[in-house]
Amino acid sequence: MYVVDHAAPMNSGRPHGLSGKAGFYGLVGSSDVMRRLYRRIEAVASFRSTVLIVGESGTGKELVARAIHDCGAQRGPFIPFNCAAIPRELVESELFGHRRGAFSGATADFQGLLRAAEGGTVFLDEITEMAPDTQAKLLRALQERAVRPVGATREIPIDVRLVASTNRDPGEAVRSGQLRSDLYYRLQVNVLEVPPLRARREDIPALAAHFVALFNARNMGARLVTGIEDDAMAALASYEWPGNVRELANTIESAFTFGTAATIGLLDLPSKVASARGGAPAPIEVAAPFHAELPSTRSVQAGAVGTFADFERQLIVRALESTGGNKVQAARLLKISRKKLYARIERYGLVMREASQTPVAPSQFAPS
Known about the structure:
Layout: E1 2-3, E2 23-24, E3 27-28, H1 32-45, E4 51-54, H2 61-71, E5 78-82, H3 88-96, H4 113-116, E6 121-125, H5 132-144, E7 146-147, E8 156-157, E9 161-166, H6 170-175, H7 181-187, E10 191-193, H8 204-219, E11 227-228, H9 230-238, H10 244-258, E12 263-264, H11 271-274, E13 285-288, H12 297-301, H13 308-322, H14 327-334, H15 338-347, E14 351-354, E15 363-364
Parallel strand pairs: 4-9, 4-10, 5-6, 6-9, 11-12, 13-14
Antiparallel strand pairs: 1-11, 2-3, 7-8, 14-15
Helix pairs in contact: 1-2, 8-10, 13-14, 14-15
């Protein structure tokens, strides 16, 4: 079993990693690719020039931006801004500010994020979602180190570092018109590539332990997880993680929600993750209605139904058969909560078919 330190999650405000520890300014991992990333962060942090962070969704690009800010010991704040989170027509005033009366709804002066981050860092997440004309104004602000608020007649000097990110290939974004070439040339002076989780599988145990400690702290003693079973860790290490570190965090949180033991086991993981190890049972169909006897404890002791997982799976199947697929009644019959029943139905991949055996598109018992 993989035992985790549940005292506290990694302190994001202190440097770690280059000496061989588990992380660096909130980033977790000591793989070769991450250690190279840490060295590049240290290199760019010592300068005030712009940085472009490239990586798939969920890889932790904002954490890299924060590490650049913290490692450089900026005197001003770190201000993140998601370019895709608000309408394009409002991005300009959010970044550069506006004067009162500049447009409908501008009831007061607003200094804008670039001025609010004076002496610090502005992180523009998914910069390819920014409108081309706003990209042009951003480029001028970077070149002149000054901004002109919407409705103003003069520029105001700024002292701020710009860090931008994209989950797209920058060259392709330029060719498709999503990123202005002149802005890209300005940003590409310092490019940091964040590796996907599948490219650094050796970091998965440390990341999993980090998230266990994090959710232990958030739950404030409601449930304490002390470790991860070997088969569960093997599944975590084998899964491809298309959602990267964010998906791993969500998986660990789900295991907290649906698990009941002091350790996270294979059955506590989503079926798609558990099956990556090759240990998850194949989907089966449940005919309804059909009445049958539930397997007895004696048959389990005699080895008639194999492992406990086999027994539990068959128990749920028989309960659903006995209740004609009624999950509320099945949960009552099994003396478990509906929430736990839904989790086990999803874990074992149970699907419903008609008793007539007529082929139909199966529908999942578990809610989507």
